[in-house]
Design brief:
- The chain is mainly beta.
- The chain is built from no helices and 20 strands.
- The N and C termini lie far apart (37 Å).
Length: 203
């Protein structure tokens, strides 16, 4: 377990992330600031990866920001076959965004604040705030699933489901008990080239 604040940048070993959980259940309780120039298409420059087990960020060491992970106006990529839990805020600032890849599950439990949000594979379970009612905060589920479990109304300005290039079998949004999804602008369904990708919203 690590209680100190971390400032991370670079590709990491073999391009698999500046912070990597190889196995077991590990906790980062200090603030993590990603300082690399990562963008939506270069994941290794600003990446946290969990290969197995669970990597948890609880951010207890930085009260004034209430952030577990800050990235400024950068994209942060979270992925791997293992799970990642962000207890407090996952914050990227105005133009920043989050990309989820890999077969593991990302748990978002805090009052999150980020720009665009993209799921390429695996599962995202959000029990914290996930209001994305802003033109700069597009939500794209190209493959995998997003589960909203807030027991309240959650707003998304623009939602895209599916991708013409994904190899994932489905792209879906699931609503937990008592959760209502309000789409305030556009909803787009994209079919894959081989018709293997099923897009859906259920609850």
């Amino acid at each position: 377990n690590i209680a100190d604040a971390l400032r991370l940048a670079g590709t990491g070993m073999a391009g698999e992330g500046a912070l990597r959980n190889l196995a077991g259940n590990n906790v980062i309780s200090g603030l993590v600031i990603m300082e690399g120039p990562g963008n939506v298409s270069v994941p290794s420059q600003n990446r946290i990866q969990s290969d197995a087990g669970t990597l948890t960020f609880n951010g207890g060491g930085v009260v004034k920001t209430n952030n577990s992970i800050q990235t400024g106006n950068q994209y942060i990529h979270l992925g791997g076959a293992g799970d990642i839990v962000v207890v407090n805020r996952l914050g990227t600032g105005g133009a920043g965004g989050v990309v989820k890849d890999g077969s593991g599950t990302l748990y978002l439990q805090g009052d999150n604040k980020f720009g665009a949000f993209q799921v390429q594979a695996g599962k995202v379970i959000s029990s914290g705030t996930f209001n994305m009612d802003d033109p700069k905060r597009a939500v794209s589920i190209f493959g995998g699933s997003l589960e909203l479990q807030q027991n309240s109304v959650q707003q998304i300005y623009t939602l895209t489901l599916g991708s013409a290039t994904t190899t994932e079998a489905f792209a879906e949004v699931k609503l937990g008990a008592g959760t209502t999804l309000e789409l305030t602008n556009n909803l787009t369904f994209n079919a894959s080239a081989n018709a293997a990708n099923t897009a859906s919203i259920s609850g």
